[in-house]
Amino acid sequence: QKEVEQDPGPLSVPEGAIVSLNCTYSNSAFQYFMWYRQYSRKGPELLMYTYSSGNKEDGRFTAQVDKSSKYISLFIRDSQPSDSATYLCAIRNTGGFKTIFGAGTRLFVKA
Amino acid sequence: GAGVSQSPSNKVTEKGKDVELRCDPISGHTALYWYRQSLGQGLEFLIYFQGNSAPDKSGLPSDRFSAERTGGSVSTLTIQRTQQEDSAVYLCASSLGPVEGDGANVLTFGAGSRLTVL
Predict the structure, then answer these.
(1) Which of A6, A98, B18, B86 is the most exposed place for a label (fewest CB within 10 A)?
(2) For A51-72, what is each residue's pLDDT tens digit?
(3) B94: which chain A residues are within 8 Å (Cβ-Cβ)?
(4) d(CA B80, CA B15)
């Protein structure tokens, strides 16, 4: 079993839609949860960062962590064509150095 | 520098040849990572350097892969006797280091080196 599972998509939505991206993880020891965005031919860049459980909001983006079910989500409101990219969830232990990434979900937002 | 710099951006080589990929991390970042990204796969951890400590090589897939970091800055990933399954994008990332706290250890990635083995 992989430590983090993510549906690779692709996911295609119309402009203005609410997008929901999700990952599951296997080890309850993970405390740091991140979402990275990767445009074509670029390296991933950090989008959202959450410690432990709860929600975190930044503009049109909301990150949600449910530690009881080992489930993390990223919601994008009012999606734009510029949001078209691959979104990778990532997890890390407290005190650990290794960040473990999901496979990434390819998102297409159609104008 | 302003960001993580990687070279070459693209490398095409023949099976059996050796290749070297270079990473120049952000100035002041003590931690450096190499990941591999294959088509449809997530980022696969390869190796981690932290300051002057011995690197964690637990992700290197075979003894054909090696990496070094000189002077706590520039790193080189070497793949010997390349195979077609080595074709991937090799990503380097750096971070401030292992200090805990909000924002700590956030990885900043380079654009990657795309390796194609014919």
Answers:
(1) B18
(2) 888 889 999 999 999 999 999 9
(3) none
(4) 10
